[in-house]
UniProtKB/TrEMBL annotation:
Domain HTH hxlR-type as annotated: residue spans: 13-112
Origin: domain of life: Bacteria
GO molecular function: DNA binding; DNA-binding transcription factor activity
Keyword line: DNA-binding, Transcription, Transcription regulation
Protein name according to UniProt: Transcriptional regulator
InterPro entries: ArsR-like_HTH, HTH_ArsR_DNA-bd_dom, HTH_HxlR, WH-like_DNA-bd_sf, WH_DNA-bd_sf
Keyword Chloroplast annotated: no
Amino acid sequence: MAAQTEDEDNEHEPLRKLLSILASPWTLLLLHRLHMEGPKRFGELRRRLGSISTKTLTERLRLLEAEGWISRHYEPTVPPQVTYAITPKVLELDGVMVELDRIAERWYGNQK
């Protein structure tokens, strides 16, 4: 087996980065919820995701905001209201999200 050159490794860097973000725990489900259900506040997201911890949800939201995948809208009310939504960038994943939804339903939808 021939060793890969540095150029060949770099050629896969964009895909590696995309997959590393998508593969992090809860990320796809979080994006799916925001994509299918629209903007959500933190507490509502936590309830909709099930057993995700507050710490993990906070970490994922910060990562996705830093990557430009979600937006954070802050309202300085009492208590403050923070709403999260996907950005147009994530809409490029629409076909992937819909297809994963279909596959999940086919594979696991009728299990009880």
